[in-house]
Structures are given as C-alpha cells and as structure tokens.
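Hey, resending since the last one bounced:
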Amino acid sequence: MALHSRSTRAGEETQGVSIVKRESAARPSILGLITARSGSKGVHHKNVRVVAGKALIAWTIEAALDARQSMRVVVSTDDAEIASLARSSGAEVPFMRPRELATDEASHVDVVIHSIRWFEEHERWTPDYLVLLQPTSPLRASGDIDAAVNLAIERDALAVISVCPSPVHPYFIRSIDANSVLRPVCGMPEGYLRRQDLPSVYSVNGAIFLIRPDVLESRRTWYPDPTHGYVMPVERSLDVNTEWDLRLADMILRGDTKE
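The structure tokens again:
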C-alpha cells in the first residue's frame, strides 16, 4: 500500500490508542493550526512547491480535514498566494499574519499565541486543545492526528508531541573539537554495546505539536512537564527542509521508489 494513502488509519496501529470518535458532548474543541510563512532559507517558497501533484501545504490541510476528530483547520500566513491556496484546499484563513511574525527571528510560540488571541478577541473562542501541524510533514496521516488527540484526551495531557524512533542512538553521536578529535556528546556504559541492548530513544519529528492554549501562553514552551509522546514510524516522519527532502517526498507520495 502506498504510504500516502489517506485511507490508512495510522493511529490504530500505534500505542494502543483508540481513534474511534466518542459520542460525547464533552468532546474537546480543537484548533488545527497550520503555519506557513512566505520566506524560507532552505527551500524558496517551499509551502507552495508542487509535490506529487499538489502544493506541499495541501497535503497537511488534507490530512487535517480528513481526521475523524472534529476541528477547525486554520492557516496562519503572511502570504497572499498561500492564503488563496489554503482556502481553495478547504482551510480557513480568517486573518493575515503580521509581518513581524513572519521573519526568521520570529518565535513559533509567538506566532501560535497570535492566532490563539485573534480567536479570543474576534470570536470569543478559545479551543480546549491546539494542534500545530507544520506543512513540512506531508507524510503525516489523518490517523496520526486522531491518535495524538485521543492520547491527549485519555491521559488528560498538557501536551502531546509526535516522535519517531531515533535513527542514531545518542551513545554513538560525537562532536569534533578544534584538533579534529571525536568527543562523546553524552556518557555511555563501558564495553561493547549491542544495538538490541540499547535503551529506546526517540526524535521529535515535527509532525504534531498538541498543547492546551493556556499552557502555551503561560509557560511559552511546547514541552511543559509532563509532555506525552505519540510515536510515529520513520516512514511517515519525513521533515522537508531541503531540495532533496522535497524530491524524496515527491517520490514517496507518488509511490515511485525506483529512482
């Protein structure tokens, strides 16, 4: 089955978290926020670059809209082209992001808090949870979003962040000093270490950042203590930041892995 199939309910196979929608008036309100500014250092205008027949950002909008969990899907952008594309893909763009929040120096926390406060001021609405979905994770499935939300509900979590098994264990990561000498980044046990004996470690994959809005505003971090981890497979954890990443995403989403 192609990795980009949106019929795959990814979360059903991960962590034992059910994604069956509960019929309950207490179901939390969710803001699915997609942040996409015009500037990009690594890949010029990457959010509207065509990947497997559609703009990069469209893959994330589609996944959010296809999620079983009811949520408002909103795009925060400073760019008119991105705003138009987002609306045509089914997302809301109720405001344009201020230019000072669309620079390389702007904090992502400030960008998201701006969106939260816009809804508080203009609609008197504050969601129970905010789910940040970055356009640079086009392989993230709608089932991943559902499973992360349900993990938050079942654990009454302050925050949930998506991770994947780390491809390199920190025991084997080294820095290089001024004399070209390798130095360990973290301490490790003495002797030979077999891969199967190593403790499991995970890398943040950038696909899902879920948090309570009041927690983000008061603590100004995506990692309040405790933060829960939602595990995704490496196959859906590509984070697009280079031209090579774009090409790889295009091949995977087209189902063409022969190149």
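Confidence is low (pLDDT under 50) at residues 1-8, 16-25.

Sorry for the duplicate.
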